[in-house]
Protein backbone atom coordinates (compact mmCIF):
# COMPACT_ATOMS: atom_id res chain seq x y z
CA UNK A 1 0.00 0.00 0.00
CA UNK A 2 1.50 3.33 -1.05
CA UNK A 3 1.31 6.10 1.54
CA UNK A 4 -0.81 9.14 0.72
CA UNK A 5 1.15 12.23 -0.20
CA UNK A 6 0.96 15.22 2.07
CA UNK A 7 1.10 13.32 5.34
CA UNK A 8 4.79 13.17 6.20
CA UNK A 9 4.35 11.61 9.64
CA UNK A 10 2.26 8.79 8.21
CA UNK A 11 4.90 8.18 5.52
CA UNK A 12 7.64 8.04 8.16
CA UNK A 13 5.77 5.53 10.32
CA UNK A 14 4.91 3.33 7.33
CA UNK A 15 8.56 3.30 6.20
CA UNK A 16 9.65 2.48 9.76
CA UNK A 17 7.14 -0.35 10.04
CA UNK A 18 8.16 -1.78 6.66
CA UNK A 19 11.86 -1.86 7.52
CA UNK A 20 11.15 -3.59 10.83
CA UNK A 21 8.85 -6.11 9.15
CA UNK A 22 11.58 -6.86 6.60
CA UNK A 23 14.03 -7.63 9.43
CA UNK A 24 11.56 -9.98 11.12
CA UNK A 25 10.73 -11.76 7.87
CA UNK A 26 14.35 -12.41 6.89
CA UNK A 27 15.27 -13.45 10.43
CA UNK A 28 12.47 -16.01 10.28
CA UNK A 29 13.85 -17.33 6.98
CA UNK A 30 17.18 -18.11 8.63
CA UNK A 31 19.24 -16.32 5.98
CA UNK A 32 22.04 -14.61 7.92
CA UNK A 33 23.31 -12.51 5.01
CA UNK A 34 19.84 -11.13 4.22
CA UNK A 35 19.21 -10.53 7.92
CA UNK A 36 22.41 -8.50 8.20
CA UNK A 37 21.44 -6.43 5.16
CA UNK A 38 17.92 -5.85 6.47
CA UNK A 39 19.26 -4.81 9.89
CA UNK A 40 21.66 -2.32 8.29
CA UNK A 41 18.83 -0.92 6.16
CA UNK A 42 16.54 -0.57 9.18
CA UNK A 43 19.28 1.05 11.26
CA UNK A 44 19.93 3.60 8.53
CA UNK A 45 16.26 4.59 8.67
CA UNK A 46 16.15 5.12 12.43
CA UNK A 47 16.77 8.86 12.07
CA UNK A 48 13.59 8.99 9.97
CA UNK A 49 11.59 8.18 13.09
CA UNK A 50 13.91 9.70 15.70
CA UNK A 51 14.02 13.22 14.24
CA UNK A 52 10.23 13.82 14.04
CA UNK A 53 9.78 12.24 17.46
CA UNK A 54 12.51 14.40 19.02
CA UNK A 55 11.09 17.52 17.36
CA UNK A 56 7.59 16.75 18.68
CA UNK A 57 8.93 16.23 22.21
CA UNK A 58 10.91 19.47 22.02
CA UNK A 59 7.81 21.36 20.87
CA UNK A 60 5.80 19.85 23.71
CA UNK A 61 8.38 20.96 26.28
CA UNK A 62 9.90 24.19 24.88
CA UNK A 63 11.37 25.26 28.21
CA UNK A 64 13.53 22.13 28.30
CA UNK A 65 14.63 21.92 24.66
CA UNK A 66 15.78 24.27 21.92
CA UNK A 67 14.93 23.41 18.34
Apparent shape? elongated
Return the structural class: mainly alpha
Largest sheet: none
SSE string, helices as H and strands as E: HHH
Tell me the fraction of residues in β-strands, as a range: under 5%
Given the structure, what is the number of helices?
3
Please report the total strand number as a whole number: 0
Overall mean pLDDT stands at: 85
Q: Uncertain runs with pLDDT below 50, 5 residues or more?
A: none
General description of the model:
By secondary structure, this protein is mostly helical. The chain has one domain. The protein is built from three helices and no strands. Helix 1 packs across helix 3. The longest helix has 22 residues. The model has no long low-confidence stretch (mean pLDDT about 85).
Short description:
The protein has helices at residues 8-29, 32-44, 46-60.
Show the helix and strand layout.
Layout: H1 8-29, H2 32-44, H3 46-60
Helix pairs in contact: 1-2, 1-3
